[in-house]
Amino acid sequence: MKTSHRLLAVLVAAIWGVNFVAIELGLRDLPPLVLTALRFVAAAVPLVFLVPRPSARLRYVLAYGLVLGVLKFGALFTALAAGMSAGLASLVLQAQALMSVLLAAAVLGERPARAQVAGVLVGSVGIGVLAIGSGGHTTVIGFVLTLFAAASWATANLVMRASGETRPLSLLVWSSLVPPLPLLGLAGVVNGGQAVLDALTGLSWRGLLAVVYIAYVSTLVGFGIWNRLIAQYSVARVAPFSLLVPVFGLSAAWLLLDEPVGATELAAAAIILAGLALVVRRSTAEGNSDTAASEGRKPRLRPGCGRLVRSDDTDHFARAGRRDGHDHS
Question: Which residues pair with 161 in a beta bridge?
Fold first, then answer.
């Protein structure tokens, strides 16, 4: 994985870490499912009129929208409204890294390296340390819903990888058309139709700014970069970078929401960073190995061609010769 791409993955982690603060502020004025629906309305309009349709089949677009929008974010926003602190949610949600690697191995046949598995396991230990030591900062229902959101995110990563999408931004924008109606319907059942209508008609500036950050910065920029990286690399190489989200999430919650950060949180963050270091070290070693292998393939001169031809071009020239009636060998 290139250094520039690793830096992009870290940038996404920072964006998503701050996103938990934006969600927390938005939930002060809006019911969770209404806020989630507005997030995807803003992410879809007006870009849906400007970007081309996804290259993936319709079933992948629908599946990605339902799993990411309704299941993952619906559960996450509800968990935060049910008492899950923003900083702790940013940590527990990263259980998706281990789930993503395991699902990709089981369903897509992506075989993670031992260092990648070890890194994710170490990071998961850090999440477990925080979950055990920070019980006073959450509720049981909030913790369970956040774990469900993590599983849904892992599934969404799988859908993205399996779709073979060549235009990740298009998939993200067009799939954002899927969640709003189901989410508003669920909100009507949970909160009542009048409460939903009041929330939509009485949208405050704080709620609007939260929607803007969540939709455009977190969703379009964050997931746009994330999906492009997953499309280019394997899930096992990209997903572990989300283990950095809690570091940024805890810091942002401490700075902007005055959420306490104690020894347990700091220890958990250190363990998570150690796990990520294992993954990044493995990716760097693979990149160096690929470069060395590429440089080790020496070109050779083929008789009659008058130019240097790499050995892996042989079949191409043989096929070309048969097509134009000449034998280049």
Answer: none
